[in-house]
Each structure stands twice: as C-alpha cells, then as structure tokens.
Design brief:
Layout lengths: L1 H6 L4 H14 L5 H6 L2 H11 L4 H17 L2 H6 L2 H11 L4 H14 L3 H9 L2 H11 L4 H14 L3 H9 L2 H11 L4 H15 E2 L4 E2 L6 H11 L4 H14 L3 H7 L3 H13 L1 H16 L1
Antiparallel strand pairs: 1-2
Helix pairs in contact: 2-5, 4-5, 5-7, 5-8, 7-8, 7-10, 8-10, 8-11, 10-11, 11-14, 13-14, 13-15, 14-16, 15-16, 16-19, 18-19
Length: 283
C-alpha cells in the first residue's frame, strides 16, 4: 500500500483506494509499524493533494480517525492533520459523511489539550457548527456534533468560541428538530451545561434565545427517561446562578410542574436539584 502511494501519487484513484485500505488495516496494526512507515504523514499528504475529491477525503478522514483511536493523536496534530480535517469539512459541507467522520475525528483528537486549542485556532468549531446546520435533520451527525462540542467546551477558550459561533443556538435548534430522540436531548443538555458554565469564575451565561423552551420540550417528551430529566435539571440549576435567567424561569407554571414530576419520578438523581430550582424560582 505504501509503495502504491509513493509510486502513483499522481493517480487519485490509486490514492483513494490505498487510503481506504489503510483505514481498514490500522486497527490491527501495531503503532510502531504505523509510525515507522509514516502512515499519518502519507494520509495527510494524500488528503492535501486532492482536496476537492470527496470520496478520497472520506477515506483519508476515516484513516485519521482510526489512527487517532489507535494512539497516534500527537502525530496527527504534529503534521497539521487537524487542519486537513477542518479543510475537508469546509470544502465538502454538502457531504454528510465528511461532516460525520470529521466530527468523530476531531472529538477523538480533542482528548489532547493541545488539540483542543488547535481545533479552535484552525476554525474547527465554526466548521462543526456550519456542518451541523447544513444537515440538521440527520440524527447521527447531530449526535456526533453535540458530542464533540460537549468535549471541546471543557476548554475555557472553546466555551467562548462556541458561543461566538452561535453554538448555543445551534444546539437548541438540534433539540427542536430531534425532539423525539432522547439520546440527543440528554447529550444536548449536558453540552449546554459545559458551554454556559465557567468553573473558574463561577459565572453562568445568560440565556440568549429559546433554551428554556428546548429544555422544557425535552422534559415533556421524555418524562420517564431518567438521564434526560437529570441533565435537564443539572442545566436548569446551572442557569439559576445567573440572575437574569431567574426572571425567565419565574411564573412558568409548566416548568414548575415538570420539575416536580422529575423529582417525584427520580428522587435519587433529580429531587434535590429540582427542589433547589423551584426554591430559586419562587423566592
């Protein structure tokens, strides 16, 4: 495969097939062999040589994802692999597969602190959000989008970048579109908690749109799904630490009823949080 890549680098068909074969072989190959044969560098080089070929980009990103999972995250960052993934997502915004594979690859790479910063600096957060909005009805992509944003939001600078790219509004939009998907509702509430809370300054962002409607919609749609109710209560409790949010929560009879139902159905995970929120609202 390496010989084919080296010998026929001017042939996009051979390059695509070779990268696809590598993607399939990586999981069963020892790291030393992958590193010794410069597999990361060759995959990045192939993607950069043919940026407009969507099928080739899909194969290259799949290979980078597998390489990241294999333990070669630092190698990928070192050869500007993050830029390769982000560029592919920007160029091929119409491809659901590029967007999905790009998100899972960035999610995996984001386990490195240096990669979190690199993703932001390369415009990765904006690319993720733009891709999400281009395919908002595609549930699998939205699952990956929310997952990678939730992970990236553990970085303080990324929190601000997500908010400035209208990431909160994007997550809320995803919640409305996929109102019947409990996994998305749960993950979205968790992601919003990560985005809006600054654990260093103990500050919480004010609600900027229809966050409350989306949260209540999740609680109303899945009254007996514990994780949805728990994450909704966690998020609402976080929002109560910003005074302007309290004004939005007050006098909302439906919210009070939903909180009481959550506390009743799931006392271990929701009762304490729900009661705290109610006390803040009614004070």
């Amino acid at each position: 495969i390496q010989f084919a890549l080296d010998t026929h680098r001017s042939d996009p068909y051979v390059t695509e097939r070779a990268c696809g074969a590598l993607a399939n072989l990586i999981s069963g190959t020892e790291i030393d062999i992958l590193r010794g044969n410069d597999v990361v560098q060759k995959v990045v080089a192939a993607a950069e040589t043919y940026p407009d070929l969507v099928e080739l980009q899909i194969k290259c990103i799949a290979a980078l994802w597998n390489l990241s999972v294999k333990g070669l995250k630092e190698d990928i960052v070192r050869v500007r692999g993050i830029n390769t993934v982000v560029s592919a997502m920007n160029i091929h915004i119409a491809s659901k597969e590029v967007q999905e594979k790009g998100c899972v690859t960035l999610w995996s790479l984001g386990e490195l602190d240096v990669a979190q910063d690199e993703i932001r600096n390369m415009g990765g957060i904006e690319a993720i959000i733009n891709g999400a909005m281009a395919h908002v009805a595609y549930a699998q992509l939205q699952t990956e989008v929310i997952g990678v944003l939730r992970s990236l939001a553990t970085n303080l600078s990324n929190k601000e970048a997500i908010k400035s790219c209208k990431g909160v509004e994007a997550i809320v939009c995803i919640m409305f579109v996929h109102f019947n998907n409990s996994a998305i509702q749960e993950s979205a509430c968790s992601a919003l908690s990560n985005v809006v809370v600054n654990p260093v300054t103990n500050e919480v962002s004010p609600m900027v749109g229809r966050e409350l409607d989306a949260i209540m919609g999740a609680m109303l749609s899945f009254p007996f799904v514990e994780n949805v109710q728990k994450q909704a209560c966690v998020l609402l409790r976080n929002y109560t630490f910003q005074s302007s949010n309290i004004d939005l929560l007050k006098d909302n009879v439906m919210l009070l009823n939903l909180l009481r139902l959550a506390a009743e159905n799931f006392p271990a995970s929701c009762e304490k949080r729900a009661n705290y929120i109610v006390s803040r609202i009614l004070t």
